[in-house]
């Protein structure tokens, strides 16, 4: 196995689900998980990779779940977006404690708590080697933080969206249901859509496809997997533009 000494990416958009932060607890934030993730992100910064981060809120609130219990969906989504701000505050704090310079930018204005999202400030901070955490999703109800990850990824001209999840990548069927499921190392956008593989919601996925933004899915709970992805080693599944048997992939 050859080790590639240089990172494969100059700038990435890392998406971490809220559930990734709760560790073995069923709710909330596990400080030890947060600390481990901060150290993994620090390694990337030390390699010279520019890191934008989008954090989910599913460990605290999801609008869809709250709406099922009778709450107005828009209010539920507002709570979900504020949950991502809480996760963002915790992540910025963990990065500070790991001596990593980080800025927290919110799509919803929260004076005195964090900065408001500003595209050019985000780019300057990234160029200056600061980790930029984008919270409050897109700022709009009925969207997800996967959509926010693709949107911010396109805006900051990231080389890829790296989606950290609970499984090793994208399989031909749900590995939680089928122990014999096979892991893909590479897929085209068309293959994901044709085979209805679960990567991210359709709004997020089509945004990435239409802008040719590669998505790499990997296991955030697997120590060192993030670094291997960034070093261009064979880890997880990449979904990107490729000519497939049906002709041009969009
Ligand atoms: N074809 C598939 N490949 C990989 N994971 C899949 C597939 N189908 C369903 N899943 C499930 O999707 C989950 C990960 O989805 P993800 O979007 O990261 O989480 P969430 O929906 O909780 O935000 C995994 O736990 C896995 O069981
Ligand atoms: O642009 C956005 C992003 C998120 N949310 C809300 O915030 C919640 C938490 O985000 P998400 O479910 O994407 O978190 P994850 O699954 O990544 O933890 C969502 O369920 C939505 O209710 C929203 O309304 N608009």
Automatic annotation (TrEMBL):
One GO MF term: UMP kinase activity
CDD domains documented for this protein: AAK_UMPK-PyrH-Ec
Domain Aspartate/glutamate/uridylate kinase span(s) in chain numbering: 11-219
Chain segments annotated as coiled-coil in the UniProt record: none
Signal peptide: none
Enzyme Commission number: 2.7.4.22
Involved in allosteric activation by GTP, as annotated region: 23-28
Binding site for ATP: 15-18, 58, 62, 165, 171, 174
Localisation: Cytoplasm
Keywords: Allosteric enzyme, ATP-binding, Cytoplasm, Kinase, Nucleotide-binding, Pyrimidine biosynthesis, Transferase
InterPro entries: AceGlu_kinase-like_sf, Asp/Glu/Uridylate_kinase, Uridylate_kinase, Uridylate_kinase_bac
Chief place where the protein resides: cytoplasm
UniProt keyword Chloroplast present: no
Reactions catalysed, as given in the entry: UMP + ATP = UDP + ADP
Any GO BP annotation: UDP biosynthetic process
Pathways involved: Pyrimidine metabolism; CTP biosynthesis via de novo pathway; UDP from UMP (UMPK route): step 1/1
Activity regulation field: Allosterically activated by GTP. Inhibited by UTP.
Pfam families assigned to the protein according to its UniProt record, in alphabetical order: AA_kinase (PF00696)
List of residues binding UMP: 57, 77, 138-145
Assembly description: Homohexamer.
NCBIfam families per the UniProt record, alphabetical: pyrH_bact
Annotated function: Catalyzes the reversible phosphorylation of UMP to UDP.
Family: Belongs to the UMP kinase family.
Protein's name in the database: Uridylate kinase
């Amino acid at each position: 196995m050859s080790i590639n000494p240089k990172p494969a990416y100059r700038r990435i958009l890392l998406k971490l689900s809220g559930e990734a932060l709760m560790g073995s607890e069923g709710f909330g934030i596990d400080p030890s998980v947060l600390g481990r993730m901060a150290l993994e992100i620090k390694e990337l910064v030390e390699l010279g990779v520019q890191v934008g981060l989008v954090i989910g809120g599913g460990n605290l609130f999801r609008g869809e779940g709250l709406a099922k219990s009778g709450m107005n969906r828009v209010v539920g989504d507002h709570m979900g977006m504020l949950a991502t701000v809480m996760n963002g505050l915790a992540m910025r704090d963990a990065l500070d404690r790991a001596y990593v310079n980080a800025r927290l930018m919110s799509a919803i204005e929260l004076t005195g708590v964090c900065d408001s999202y500003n595209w050019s400030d985000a780019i300057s901070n990234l160029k200056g080697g600061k980790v930029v955490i984008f919270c409050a999703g897109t700022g709009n109800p009925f969207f997800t933080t996967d959509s926010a990850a693709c949107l911010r990824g396109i805006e900051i001209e990231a080389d890829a969206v790296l989606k950290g999840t609970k499984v090793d990548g994208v399989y031909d069927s749900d590995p939680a249901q089928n122990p014999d499921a096979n892991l893909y190392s590479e897929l085209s956008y068309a293959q994901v859509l044709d085979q209805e593989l679960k990567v991210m919601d359709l709004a997020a996925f089509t945004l990435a496809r239409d802008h040719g933004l590669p998505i790499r899915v990997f296991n955030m709970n697997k120590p060192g997997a993030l670094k291997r992805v960034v070093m261009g080693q064979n880890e997880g599944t990449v979904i990107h533009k490729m000519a497939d048997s049906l002709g041009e992939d969009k």
